# Entry
Amino acid sequence: MQIDTTSLPDVLILTPKRFGDDRGWFMETFNAARVAEAGLNLRFVQDNHSMSAKVGTLRGLHFQTPPHAQDKLVRCSKGAILDVAVDIRRGSPTYGKWTAVELTEANGKQLLVPKGFLHGFVTRSENTEVQYKCTDVYAPDCDGGIRWDDAEIGIDWGLTGDPVLSAKDTVAPLLRDYDSPFIYGL
# Structure
């Protein structure tokens, strides 16, 4: 497995090796021992799988607060997405900054989004499927979001029209109106 950094040093790109032959290919999407050898201490407890029918479906920017904050390992198993992480750790030198990585079924890349970061993605093809592993279970009382189009964050989603959004994502607050419980270095 290859591990690369992004413009936000704690957000990592994990690219598993693919082994192909005339039947197709095989890849190990996660191996706890290999990830631990790379210095990452991750214990996943929940797997999620979403399907978005339309191009331009935007899910995010989401997070869970302590005590159920989650690290997420995200991959696109069908189609293509632009996957985005935003640092919301108070005191961080990259607070409010974002990074984006294209995840596709073809490139096999995965994005590790740590606790203390917002996560969101926009689909770039129809019937896109996204799968992600989480280090804590979903807890509705810890669920939150920040507006996908917050001008102070300034994410370039690459949209050519209005995104397809959930009702929750249309009314999420701006980052400046949110008191983050995440603290850099803790």
